[in-house]
Amino acid sequence: MTTLKHRLILVSPILVMAVMGAVAQGAGPIVKIAEKIEESSSRVGGNVFAVLPFTYSDGIKSIEGAIVSERLVEALSTRGFVKVVERSLLDKVLEEQKLGASGLVDPSSAARIGKLLGARAIVTGTVTDQGELLEVRVRVVNAETAEIAAVVSETMPRVIKTFISPLWSEINRIKKETPSFNVRFWTDRAQSATAVPRYRIGETVTFFLEAEQDCYVTIFDFTSSGSIHVLFPNAFMRDNKIKSGRTYVIPDAQAGFKIRVSDPPGIEKLKLFATTKDIPLFRQDYSQEKFRSISADNYAVTRDLVPVIDSLDDNAWAEAQLELQIEQVLRSEP
After folding, report:
1. What is the pLDDT, as a whole number, of residue 12?
2. What are phi and psi for residue 169, nearest 5 degrees?
3. What is the DSSP letter of 185?
4. pLDDT in tens, 90-102
5. Can you list the domains of the chain with their CATH numbers?
6. What is the C-alpha to C-alpha distance for residues 68 and 157, in angstroms, rounded to an integer?
């Protein structure tokens, strides 16, 4: 089988330094959030809280959101008044309640989780990219009444410095708030209900997708260096028609290539569009490259994407997102 070394991520080698510096700068906002959570304890009738990893506003798991929520747990634990539920127990309950895949937790499900954990309140949150800044919105949900006991909003420096691409912004801003049919998109990496998939450099990645309706799927792939390409369809797998109820593998056993993680480390972002009509979202010319690259030179690809999607009926398309964390192997393991 031909092995294709496919670069999944390109990002500054000083990623870890960027994370540490941003967390230090963001300590002020995190402490403010912790203070507001402490204040809400009188309204929820106790001081045992469960803090969920923060996601994007549409429920997609976020590496930055997970880091921010972990820093919040540390801040609460350091202050000593609020008792935080152990993460392993939280993972177990989320998996049992089938809430790990989507990351979406509403007040009623948060209250249910709180009761199972013996917590008086659940802390949920979302993060929103604002260029160099990150907006963090936090809600404290009373586990007894499902009422929202507190809402906090803070802005802080980005946790992880990544390349900001206007091309990706055009692709990423096309969102389906209420999808008419569901599309699932995941990887082969075993993970907890609250974790983002992690891969070490040199490992291979396999993607899976399912759709509730017959549709045509296009997957865009964005690296933190600003590189964007079409992961699927590609020169090896040109037929992007998906049958409902069937699980598809990228790459499948007959594809003739592998997707291998290469250095340096960072975040990989992917966005999937599914349309019930066969409308190509990019020019499928594989004469020069096996995976179609998108750059400023062919901006028409993303510029035309919006009107193509807008021309479809609301029930004729869906979208899904996925983030991966690519890690450097720092030492040899026995």
Report:
1. 33
2. -60, -40
3. E
4. 888 877 766 654 4
5. 15-157 (3.40.50.10610), 166-327 (2.60.40.2550)
6. 11
Report the Cα–Cα distance between both ends of the chain, in Å, rounded. Answer: 29
- What's the mean pLDDT in 84-110? 73
DSSP three-state, residue 133: strand
Measured from the Cβ of residue 303, the count of other Cβ atoms closer than 10 Å reads 11
Lowest mean pLDDT among 27-36, 38-47, 308-317: 308-317
Quickly tell me which residue has 């349309």 as its tokens.
Answer: 275
Beta bridge partners of 268: 223, 324
Tell me the C-alpha distance between 146 and 307, whole Å: 40
Question: Are 261 and 205 spatial neighbours (Cβ–Cβ below 8 Å)?
Answer: yes
The torsion defined by the Cα of 186, 188, 190 and 191, in degrees rounded to 10, comes to: -30
pTM above the 0.85 mark?
A: no
Tokens for 138? 């936090």
Short-list 244, 250, 237, CA closest to 322: 250
